[in-house]
Every structure is written in C-alpha cells, then in structure tokens.
Amino acid sequence: MPQITVDYSDRLVDVFDRPGFAKALHDATVEIAAARPQACKTRFRRTEDVTVGPDTGGHAHVHVGLALLPGRSDDTKARLTERTLELLREHIGTVGGLTLHASAEVRELDASYRKFETA
C-alpha cells in the first residue's frame, strides 16, 4: 500500500517525466495520506490508442489511480487527488497540438487486499 497505477498515452512518452512524477507523488502520498515511503509502489502503463468522443486524433490522456488502505477521510483523499493533478501539470511538458485529458482518483482497497514481501 499504496498501489498507484498511471495509464498514459504513448504520445506523452517523450514529455512525461515518469520517474520524477513517481518520486514526487510518493512524497505527497507520505505527507498527505501518512503512507510509509517504502510502501509506495507505482506502475506505468503506456496505452497506444486514445479515442475521445468521436475523435481518434489530437488527444492525449493520463489517468492516475491511487488505492489506499481504508481509513483516510474524504478530505484527505480529495487533497491527494488535487496534489496528483498538480504534479501531472509539473511533470508533463508541452504536448504540442494535442488536447491533454488528465484525471486522478483515490480509492480504498477492498477488505480482501493482502500482500507479502520477500528479500
């Protein structure tokens, strides 16, 4: 915990500072949601095709999903979502001629969530 997934358009590959974004988002998650730094895990999934409405061209998309253990207030989740969007603005450069659609969501992990670690 937290489990962070970032889906992003392949059109952003050269302008999205993914390592910088992940580090900054981990720091924000520790500060805002009291997560442990070593527990923050982010995976990036590049998507090839984005269709927005009837359009297949001229758009790029990024969506960040943050899944946390239960217990955070709605205010905490909202603050983390807003900070996530700010960090996207800071870590995605100029997308030249594209409309960027960026979104984020913080949700609680289901009670069935389990994990293990090995060294």
From TrEMBL:
<keyword id="KW-0413">Isomerase</keyword>
<dbReference type="InterPro" id="IPR004220">
    <property type="entry name" value="5-COMe_2-OHmuconate_Isoase"/>
</dbReference>
<protein>
    <submittedName>
        <fullName>Isomerase</fullName>
    </submittedName>
</protein>
<dbReference type="InterPro" id="IPR014347">
    <property type="entry name" value="Tautomerase/MIF_sf"/>
</dbReference>
<dbReference type="GO" id="GO:0008704">
    <property type="term" value="F:5-carboxymethyl-2-hydroxymuconate delta-isomerase activity"/>
</dbReference>
<dbReference type="Pfam" id="PF02962">
    <property type="entry name" value="CHMI"/>
</dbReference>
